[in-house]
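Dear support,

I submitted the protein below through the web form. The confirmation email said the job was done, but the results page showed an empty box. After a refresh the structure appeared. I'm attaching both so you can tell me whether what I see now is the final result or a partial one.
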Amino acid sequence: MIPPDTSPGQQPGPEFENSPLPAAMLAVARADTSANRHMLYQALLKTWFMVPMREMPAAAPGFHDVDENTAAKFSLEHDGDGNPVLPVFTDEEALRNWNPDIAWIAMQGPGFFRVVAGTAAADIVINPFEPENPASKMIRPGGRVTRWEFELLAQGLDPQDKVDGTE
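What the results page shows now:
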């Protein structure tokens, strides 16, 4: 979804508080347990992600249905191994740390993961930064969501259930 503008009479855009996701990522980094993974996947399903776009959709700012052309405008990048990845961000400061000028849209939950599943992305990279750029540094917890994980999240499923055999 594209966040709405804040003109008079418009509803405010989505809240990018997203505090459960960074906390859940840190919990998994400290102790990669089944319980912490469940907490992480539940946070991922509720998080509003800022998705960099190569070009903005033609529609005016505001909430809109995502069409089949939206994913084609995602700014897919390549990781160090040459794999296509989709960088996403939990807040605008993290996005601007990565690229100060890029356009973005906001997307949330299984709908976000369904759209990403329709791309060539091997992974979703959360809150990346540019280590070659001295102005860019790690300012938020980050991580990767692999294709098998986001394909399950796209269905509203918790990937940890598959790992635990409780699916």
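Response: this is the final, complete result; the empty box was a page-load delay. The chain has a mean pLDDT of 82.
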